[in-house]
Amino acid sequence: MNDRQDSQELFAHMIAQVPNPVYFKDISGRYRVFNDSFETFMGMNSEQLLGKNSHEVLPVEIADLLVAHDKALLRGSSPRQNFQASYTDTFGRERSVIVNKTILFLEPFHQGIFGVITDVTELEVTRKALGESQKILRNIFEAIPDLLSVHDRDLRIVQSNWHGGYQYVPEDIRSQHPHCYDAYYPGQGKPCSPCHVLEVFRTNTPVLGEKYHEQLGYMETHAFPVFDDSGKTVMVAEYIRNISARKRTEVALCEANQRLAAIIEASPLPIIAMDTRGIMKLWNTAAERVFGWKAGEVMERPYPLLPDQSAGEEDIFSRLNRGEIFNGDVVTRSRKDGSTLPICRYSAPLRDSSGRISGTMAVLEDVADRQRAEDELKASEINYRAIFDGTNDAIFVLDPGSGAIIDVNRKMCEMYCCSREEALQLDVEAFSSGRIPYTQNFALEYIQKAAIGESQIFEWLARRQDGDLFWVEVNIKKIILGGATRALASVRDISERKMAEDAHRESEERFRQLFDQNEDPAMMINSETLEIIDVNSALVRHYGFSPNRLFNVGVKLFLHQPERDRVREALAGITRSGNVQIDQLATYNRKEEQVIACFRAKVIKARGVSYVYCTFRDISERLRIREEAKLLQTKLLQTNKMAALGTLSSGIAHEINNPTNFILANAQMVHDAWKDIDLVLADYAREQGEFSVGGFSCGEAREIMPKLLSGIIEGGQRIRNILNELRQFAREEKAPLDQQVSVNQVLEKSIAMLQNQIRNHTSNFHFAPDPQDSCIRGSLQQLEQVVINLVMNALQSLPDRESGVSVSLYREQPGQQVVIEVRDEGLGMTPETVKQIFDPFFTTKLDSGGTGLGLSICYSIVKQHRGTIEVQSEPGSGSCVFVRLPLCEK
Predict the structure, then answer these.
(1) How far apart are the C-alpha atoms of 569 and 600, rounded to whole Å?
(2) Residue 147 DSSP SS3
(3) 3-state secondary structure 456-515
(4) For labelling, which of 239, 261, 717, 832 has a CA lying 20 to 30 Å from the CA of 678?
């Protein structure tokens, strides 16, 4: 009997080492032996699989298929069988597998079926991808409209799409991989001279050229090398495109240029062109007539039309070179005889093939007669000025083309702290904050839209000439002034309104942050109807209902009728007292699990409307602990002092948890508020100079406070984590441990936190990290707790500072485990002590404040990480602790 049991255990141990899913069935089809990979493959544990047949653990259609294969194997002449099948794994992914089976005799089951499952999903995907790549390559060849072919060193065509007009090559010639000159130029009998393909083979570089084909016309050829892995040119690809149409286009362009030259010469208006340096390149007959210079006198010479005293025209060429367009503005220009005349100019930039500005072309019009008519209109503008300056809004008159300021009224000068003369010398940018979108370019878009009849109303961040920023409301409309289209911008100061709106919005944002960051479930409701107005993320997470469902269905999702009646009765008097509280209220989550909550409600107002702000603090854990405390009290008469100490520790852990939560919540709120306070302090410091805050300078306080607040939060979180570990140990619960953790990082952070203790206890401390930086699956904080406990115990065991402690990390060979070794030169322990050190509340340091929980919690954490912890110690020889944890891939 023992031999059979040993054989079975040996067989189970053997298949456990196999990475593929492996199983053994007896002849009745029941699973008798299988490995962990098979449990993962099936999505079940050993208790769910052991002794079960296929119909008990699989869908009917799959079970029927497997049973049929099993029967065929048992009845067949061959002792082996394999087949391929598809299945959906536990993550919902379609997988393809190959099942190999054979008949096996295994005591005590005698005869049965031994099966190995191989996942070939990735192989199938690779094969499919290779086929798709080949298909795509063929499609690319066929999709190119021009000729694309590949040639070997003998100039034979290896592959070609025969497009681009070469469809005339007969099919029987194509299939023979002909020489390129025989296919493209029948009867030529030899390579072309020069031959682009041979040139590529000779130089190993691409070649671009043109050829004339008698049948197809002008052809552009691109030949480029195809290299092997060693960089040697093994083939040449040639891309041939018909460019006959482009050649015809070039001829047509030449003809068009000739027509354009004729039009310029026939124009009654002067037309000129110059490069970016102002050197004349074009001067038509009309320009000779109006200005008096012949073309030969000005061509390839500087622009001659600027008067000697041309104020404001010094940057004319830089403006033109930036691409600025003059569209009908009037300037004064010189004639050859020294006289001047008013000219209306129209210009556009000339650009080269890359789009860069290469010069300017301008059409000029003599407007002397028109200008005299405009002068007569100026007299009528006196009355307009009186009305213009009498309005209480700032007014700008703007040029729609350039956005230039043409006129402003008295109120504008007062609002922007400048004179009218100063305003007319500036642009809109000077009276704007300059921050996008409050810039000249964005303003010009509004102005140009208004100039075509689309009135524009918008808010704008403006700037006074003393640098102050303020908000204005701008209304721009189209007007006709002096016969010209202008944009009239009416500007009203709305700074006070914006400040009120910003203050209200900031208040709402602060409330929203507090509302959403509240760790307790919270909501806002109508006190009369209990209609839900808003919920925070904690309520959604705690009860499992989506916000939309909560809004649509209401509080009856988590409050039954009796509880709703209690809430409605309590809220009936809330307008008188301002807030209410129900100490214990039964609520229900999505799974209909009861959650006892402490209900609090308070009236708040938002935009003149009263709402009730409600919170539900889960006290189920508190009540459960109270009940457990009562049960423990009844057992105190029959239990020993250690059980009493355990009960006391559990109660203390719970009591510490509440103030810890208060510390974390308040510290987080102060931490978030510090961002706003920091901005206020910075502004105050800039205005008032350096000052003291809590004994620190302003700069030091702004640097230290975030660190202090972060330290409080981190410390509170560590306290809460320690308490959680204590409760987990008491409940024997397993938290999900799925993080990838660097064990080197765990040791480094733990040792860093213990630097002060290490310096106090020993001058001989050594740490040897793992050079391979091993990783495991688990919790970094829990593993830190283990390392801190072990190192602290080692330090406290030392008789003097000369005695040492060493911490090392290495991989254990053979096997996939990493070992944390903590060795000390302390007093050591007796075998009896070693046997008890992992028991809860056992301690050898009771007189110095030891609780006996450290190593018991370490033992629980290591077990949860699927590891082991071992202690070796002898009195007078120190102790060594080995923690072994399973490795995982990075």
Answers:
(1) 13
(2) strand
(3) EEEEEEEECCCCCEEEEEEEEEEEEECCEEEEEEEEEECHHHHHHHHHHHHHHHHHHHHH
(4) 717
User: Is the distance from CB of 785 to CB of 855 less than 8 angstroms?
Assistant: no
The total number of residues shown for the chain amounts to 890
> Which pLDDT tens digit goes with each residue over 21-77?
998 888 888 988 888 888 888 888 888 888 899 889 888 888 888 888 888 888 877
3-class secondary-structure state, position 238: strand
Could you read off the pLDDT of 506-523 as tens digits, one per residue?
A: 767 777 777 777 788 999
End-to-end alpha carbon distance in the chain: 45
* For residue 189, pLDDT beyond 80: yes
- Rg, Å, the chain Cα set: 45
- Half-sphere exposure of 246 toward its Cβ, with a 13 Å CA cutoff? 7
Judge contact between 822 and 791, C-beta under 8 A.
yes
Query: Which residues on adjacent β-strands are paired with residue 782?
Result: none
Which ranges of 32-83 would DSSP assign to H, the alpha helix?
36-42, 46-49, 54-57, 60-75
For residue 766, the SS3 value is: strand
Strands (E), 73-169: 80-88, 94-106, 110-119, 147-151, 157-160
CB contact burial 528-561 (16+ within 10 A = b; e otherwise): eebebebbbebbbebbebeeeebeeebbebbbee
The residue type of 882 is: F
Give yes or no for a contact between 289 and 266, defined as CB atoms under 8 angstroms apart: no
Global pTM exceeds 0.70: no
Q: Which residue do the tokens 């509240």 mark?
A: 518
Structure tokens belonging to residue 425: 């010398």
555-574 pLDDT, tens digit each: 888 999 999 888 888 888 77
Token duo for residue 368: 């002397």
589-625 burial code (b ≥16 CB/10 A, e <16): eeeeeebbbbbbbebeeeeeeebbbbbbbbbeebeeb
Which of 530, 571, 536 shows the shortest CA–CA distance to 554? Answer: 530
Amino acid of residue 206: P
CA distances in angstroms from 620 to 81, 408, 584, 598, listed in the order given: 58, 72, 9, 9
Higher pLDDT, 694 or 425: 425
CA 559 – CA 567 distance, rounded (Å)? 9
Kindly list the distances between the CA atom of residue 883 and the CA atoms of 792, 795, 890, in Å, as whole numbers in the listed order. 15, 18, 20
Residue listed under structure tokens 């004639």: 335
pLDDT higher at 289 or 122: 289
Minimal CA–CA distance to 703: which of 686, 681, 684, 687? 681
**Could you say which DSSP state residue 156 is in?**
B
Euclidean distance between CA atoms 855 and 853, whole angstroms: 6
Q: CA 764, 765, 767 angle in degrees (round to 5)?
A: 145
Contact at 8 Å (CB) between 886 and 819? no
| 728 pLDDT above the threshold of 90 | no
Segment (H or E) for 699:
helix 698-731
CA-wise closest residue to 403 among 449, 357, 456, 470: 449
Report which residue type is found at 101: K
Which stretches within 754-869 are classed as H helix? 755-761, 780-796, 831-836, 854-864
The Cα–Cα gap between 58 and 532 comes to 46
H/E stretch holding 679 reads helix 641-688
Q: Examine residue 194 and say whether the peptide bond preceding it is cis (omega within 30 degrees of 0).
A: yes
